[in-house]
Amino acid sequence: MPVSVDERGAAVASIPAPTAAEKAVADALPIEVSAEAAQAAIDSVPLWFHTFSLNGGQFYTHGVARDHRYRLPFFPEDLSGRSVLDVGAFDGFYAFLAESRGASRVVAVDNEQYRDWVRARWGVELEGGEGFRTIARLLESDVEYRKLDAFELDELGERFDLILCFGILHRVENPLGLLSILRRRLESGGEVLLETYGVEDKSLEDAAAIHVCESGEVYARDDFVYWGFTGGSLDRLARIAGFAGATVLDAPMIDGHPRIICRLEAGAADADGSLVGAASGAEANGNG
Ligand SMILES: C[S@@+](CC[C@H](N)C(=O)[O-])C[C@H]1O[C@@H](n2cnc3c(N)ncnc32)[C@H](O)[C@@H]1O
């Protein structure tokens, strides 16, 4: 149920100030601006998802995303000369981080579905993209932002060396379809860094199972978290989608939530990215 007007102020006031964990992640992308510019930037956005470090760490945006420290060890230190696509970028922290680490081209896309989620959970009306634009201006960034659904990524008409798919696979109705699209957008020799919701019940790993979440089970007033993935299920889905497989990098519990991060490497696919391995099982089994 959406928050009422009376609950709205309380909901926003309940967003905690960034912890040392969130600051540590934000500090990987220091944004050197004056105190005045930092405060004006913070005030200009009604709700932040990512925590950004401004003015030598004197100011931080109060991002609602919690502890992302587990992601950073797997984020490449040097992206010189590589192209990067950030899918479901929200305020764009990881797209800007990729640019700061030398990526030659960075594209950030989001369908801005988060506007519904932010309205339902905090009663805040976002126009879409304001956090991204604010940080892009401060950084004088060349990251290209596109309001685009992940299922329309083929419209970009280009491939990328690194695709970031953080916090979105569990939010789409067709995760296998999304992985197939990511595979088509990947340069040969490229990789997808995938982070998503995991499972608490580790015995599900034995069956490569996917947990189906109840509405609101994961986050209050958030009806868009559908799946919790095991490493085994991601590996099988990745192979069907034409990747070589999924290598699990970490599967931590964060703030009471199971998360999983893995690397998907480009596998066998023909020159236009269409799959060569996916059909073989179906051909061998005529029973459908
Ligand atoms: C939980 S946020 C994650 C933000 C960021 N990637 C991170 O992990 O820090 C999920 C983001 O994915 C976006 N999103 C959800 N479904 C999408 C879709 N089908 N196409 C593009 N973006 C989508 C949402 O609008 C939101 O910005």
Structural class: alpha/beta
| Through-space gap between termini | 41 Å
β-sheet strand percentage: 15-25%
Bound ligands, each once: S-adenosylmethionine
What ranges have pLDDT less than 50 throughout 5 or more consecutive residues? 275-288
Which architecture per CATH?
A: 3-Layer(aba) Sandwich
Tell me, briefly, the overall form. globular
Tally of contiguous helical segments: 9
**CATH homology superfamily:** Vaccinia Virus protein VP39
CATH topology: Rossmann fold
Total tally of structural domains: 1
Kindly report the average pLDDT value: 90
- Percentage of residues assigned to helices: 25-40%
Radius of gyration (CA) equals 19 Å
Overview of the molecule:
The structure is a single chain. The protein has 288 residues and is of the alpha/beta class. The chain has one domain (70-278): Vaccinia Virus protein VP39 (Rossmann fold), CATH 3.40.50.150. The protein is 27% helix and 23% strand. The chain contains 9 helices and 13 strands. The strands form 3 sheets. Strands 4, 5, 6, 7, 8, 11, 12 and 13 form an 8-stranded mixed beta sheet that branches. The protein has a 3-stranded mixed beta sheet with strand order 1-2-3, covered by helices on one side. The relative contact order is 0.12. Mean pLDDT is 90; it is low at 275-288. The structure holds S-adenosylmethionine.
